[in-house]
TrEMBL record:
Transmembrane keyword on record: yes
Gene3D superfamilies reported for this sequence: Spore Coat Polysaccharide Biosynthesis Protein SpsA, Chain A (3.90.550.10)
Family under the similarity heading: Belongs to the glycosyltransferase 2 family.
Source organism per UniProt: Rhodothermus marinus (strain ATCC 43812 / DSM 4252 / R-10)
GO molecular function: glycosyltransferase activity
Top-level lineage group: Bacteria
TM annotation in the entry: 6-35, 347-380, 386-408
Protein name stated in the entry: Glycosyl transferase family 2
Length: 469
């Protein structure tokens, strides 16, 4: 091997090592802020009665918008969970986005749907609406039947027909806890400048679901789903709680978010041509409020829970992560002017650079690091010092962060009450770095390449339905 190539590889090794150190240090800092924030939040919750807060501050009416495309397997349980919400004034708008399965028929027979008049208050362009129905058994349940236009288009149709000051966006494959809406609205009651808030997404696979409620929280039996439990805990409890404490919330999950309707309409609704419309909407709200000098705040609340079904096969997981990565890149490209721009405050100087340099470029750097290490090991040119340093920073540090996320879960909410589930979570925090993490990195890298090739499809997400006791 030539000296020039060796020197190049040595520089690459050093850059990768420094990159991992910065990436993991960022997560360590957010984890520390999360520990502090969750500790304060838990003590505060003990002294606050959510029902009293709602009664005192007044409950702003909310419309829950549920985009649905071929969701016949889960739509009944998901809608039942919405109908059990403990909230004084809310409507449910299920938007059937041209489903080719029995989604509309299942809703029609379950809730005795009848055509009913309802007039739009906004005019965001969408695919044509074919009919509007109202349930004869639940007067606050409406179904909008429209031609297919994809998820963002379906949500925009719901926004057009929304008649309340706040709107919530939830997935049709999710299960909402009864007090989720009461808890996610809290930032709007406590801070008049709040324009959006997000709740936590938890994995429903393996849990027992009856009548739209999660009756028993259990770890999934499927190994891929188990790893995603740890991944979701790390993303929300160690990540977004810290972002909220640092006031750099740049992403509200499309599976559960609450927004001010007037601002969402002002920015034109969700971008119909965006692959990652939830991320893009949050970034656009930040940008709009900054550019128009509107006082605002975007929050994350860790206890309103939406349970979601996650992929249990490698193929479906790969399509999901591929799409997430393409959506991330697309959003960052659209709003590139925020990058390191002091005009946008902490969002431009901290949040946006993190997503750009670590989330977007991370798969390329991480995958290249694995390839170079394997190449040097196979050729006998690997430095043992670098090899152990790489394992320490790339794998062990990552395991520590996952263990911290499990610790945050156990200290704050403790949804997994069985000892064997807790032990499995601790073991999974270590095991995910020995194959699962590399698999996710591969699919994210593939998503990067597909985006550069111009691929815009969503990919098919298979629904198995919720497990019953």
């Amino acid at each position: 091997m030539s000296q020039a190539l060796l020197a190049l590889l040595a520089v690459h090794q050093l850059c990768v090592l420094l990159y991992f150190m910065l990436w993991n240090s960022y997560y360590l800092v957010t984890s520390l802020f999360s520990f502090r924030a969750l500790h304060r939040y838990s003590r505060r919750l003990a002294s606050i009665d959510i029902d009293d807060l709602i009664a005192t501050a007044g409950a702003p009416p909310v419309t829950v918008i549920v985009p649905a495309y071929n969701e016949a397997a889960t739509i009944v349980e998901a809608s039942r969970s919405l109908l059990t919400l403990r909230y004084p004034d809310y409507e449910i708008l299920i938007v059937n986005d041209g489903s080719t399965d029995a989604t509309l028929e299942v809703l029609r027979s379950t809730y005795r749907l009848q055509p009913a008049p309802r007039f739009p208050l906004a005019s965001i362009p969408t695919a044509p609406v074919r009919a509007i129905y109202q349930s004869q058994t639940h007067s606050n349940l409406w179904v909008i039947d429209k031609e297919n236009g994809k998820r963002a288009d379906a949500i925009n149709a719901g926004i057009n027909y929304c008649q309340t000051p706040l709107l919530a966006i939830v997935d049709a494959d999710g299960i909402m806890e009864p007090d989720a809406l009461m808890r996610i609205v809290r930032p709007f009651l406590e801070d008049a400048h709040t324009v959006a808030s997000g709740g936590i997404i938890r994995v429903v696979n393996g849990c027992n679901v009856e009548d739209g409620l999660v009756q028993e929280v259990r770890l999934p039996r499927n190994w891929l789903a188990r790893f995603q439990v740890v991944e979701y805990l790390r993303s929300f409890l160690a990540g977004r709680v810290g972002w909220d404490a640092l006031k750099i919330m740049l992403l509200i999950s499309g599976a559960f978010g609450l927004f001010r309707r007037d601002l969402v309409v002002a920015v034109g609704g969700l971008a119909h041509d965006s692959i990652g419309e939830d991320f893009e909407l949050t970034v656009r709200l930040h940008r709009y409020c900054r550019e128009w000098r509107i006082p605002y705040a975007i929050h994350f609340v860790p206890d309103p829970v939406a349970w979601t079904e996650v992929p249990e096969t490698v193929a479906v997981l790969g399509r999901q992560r591929n799409r997430w990565q393409r959506g991330l890149i697309d959003t960052l490209r659209r709003h590139l002017r925020l990058l390191l721009n002091p005009r946008y405050g902490r969002i431009g100087l901290l949040a946006f650079p993190y997503f750009f340099f670590f989330e977007m470029l991370g798969p390329l750097v991480e995958f290249s690091g694995y390839i170079v290490v394997l190449f040097l090991l196979m050729t006998g040119w690997a430095s043992l010092t670098y090899f152990w340093a790489f394992l320490m920073v790339a794998l062990l540090f990552g395991a520590i962060l996952s263990l911290a996320a499990v610790g945050l879960e156990e200290l704050s909410f403790r949804r997994y009450t069985r000892l064997q589930d807790l032990l499995w979570l601790l073991a999974l925090s270590l095991l995910e770095n020995l194959g699962y993490r590399q698999l996710i990195t591969y699919y994210r890298l593939q998503g990067t390449l597909d985006y550069l090739r111009g691929q815009t499809g969503w990919g098919h997400m298979e629904r198995k339905g919720f497990q019953k006791a």
